[in-house]
Give the backbone structure.
Amino acid sequence: MELGAALTHARLDTMQVLDVGGRYALRLARTYDPGVDWSRFNHDFDSDSLRCDDPAILGDEDSRALLKRLGAYACFEVLQDLLREGRHQLFTLRVEPQLGMRLGLFIHSSTMGRANGMHALRAGGLRLHAPNTPELEVIADGCNLSRAMSYKNAAADLPMGGCKLTLQADPLRTDDLPRLGFLAYCIESARILTGPDMGFRPEHVDALREHFTRHCTGGHLGPLGPTGVPTAFGVFLAIREAARHAFGSPDLNGRTVAVQGLGFVGRPLAEHLVTAGAKLIVADTDATAVARLHQLLGPVQVVDPEQIITVPCDILAPCARGGVLDEASIDALKCKVVFGAANNPLKAFTKEAEIRLARRMASRGVLFQIDWLHNTAGVMSGFEEYLRGPEATQEHLRPRLERVCKDGTAEVLSTAAARGITPTEYAYEKIETRLFPQDLN
Ligand code: NAI
Ligand code: PHE
């Protein structure tokens, strides 16, 4: 049985798995009454005044025994291994069966956000998964995405730890106040700042902000707009630095660039590339995304989604789901540079496994650096809105974005080359001690 189903079966709503100095403590609980009207969140009640007439909380031993009895312990063990391998601080699963929602909150590290003086101590986007996606697939995705957020926020010098939310549910409607209210409750009680990721769109952010919570940024109505736009610009700047390193010039005029995924990031990235004179090859599983690009840019070469990773080109920019680069696809690459926006493009769940794949790319003469060094501008933009509210401006964001995505990439590529290691290894070395200062002792 899956963990969400086990909670529901036992009339519980919350599971927490918390790192307590080298081992994980499990706690299962019932924290709210069935039939809560979540559309009244932050109107009639808030995250500390949720009504529960029949509360329950089970300690570590009782929680494990219950999961064993329900046949969900094998799932829990996989989860625990993933958390251990990724060095995660806390995982929370909340289920709301009346709304068909299962929400995973992955807090990787809070170190950089402690004492930042804000409600949110960590930042990371929200990703939607279809309700029938296998739960462990969603959990693995959340673990990986939240781990990357800790490094990304530190690389961008944000006073925020790293986290991610996953939501298993049908697509969200912006007028579905009960579901949005439940989401807002999960966000506020977790002390996080969240924003758009795949399936959770800027219009959802606008609706959440209008009705429920300010701990969510990157909507159409925010002062800086959807985060895909700055993300694309930051990735474009990094691609120019990669071209400088690989081809001796940042000029993309005449270079062939393959873009996988034409969504909130891929589309504006394609625009920058065309403006810079690059020749585009694109693919998207959604025909309307391709049609929209044609409308915007005129005819560009389109290939099947299965072909885009291995299409002959100078630069490959993965801008869709993660996990597209494994041993087999790396060996089949026909490009010189892989630099994109996608989170976790490597099919790996630990730093060590990522480094193995990064080395494999280097041994094939492909320039690659870990994504969280240069797909940072979305969270930087979201944080800027969080910090300054309506006063947030592009003028303030832009120089910081250039420093992180352009200068940061140039420094990592040149230092790694001088030291004869992959940019990914150097990036980890540079950031890790800030996240895990205890490793220095
Ligand atoms: P999106 O959902 O707007 O766009 C993704 C696009 O990829 C969609 O058009 C989808 O149809 C397409 N797609 C899915 N599977 C595909 C496949 N196998 N082949 C080709 N196309 C495929 O998502 P968004 O916001 O553009 O994000 C793209 C990537 O960038 C994700 O990995 C996301 O986590 C990452 N990212 C997004 C940021 C943001 O601010 N939106 C910030 C940093 C990273
Ligand atoms: N989804 C963004 C990323 O993957 C993070 C983000 C967090 C954006 C908070 C806006 C607000 O980097």
About this structure: Residues 121 and 339 are 29 Å apart (CA to CA). The two ends are 42 Å apart (CA to CA). The pocket of NAI (ligand 1) is lined by residues 196-198, 227-228, 231, 260-266, 283-286, 289, 305, 319-322, 341-343, 375, 378 (CB under 6 Å). The longest strand covers residues 101-109.
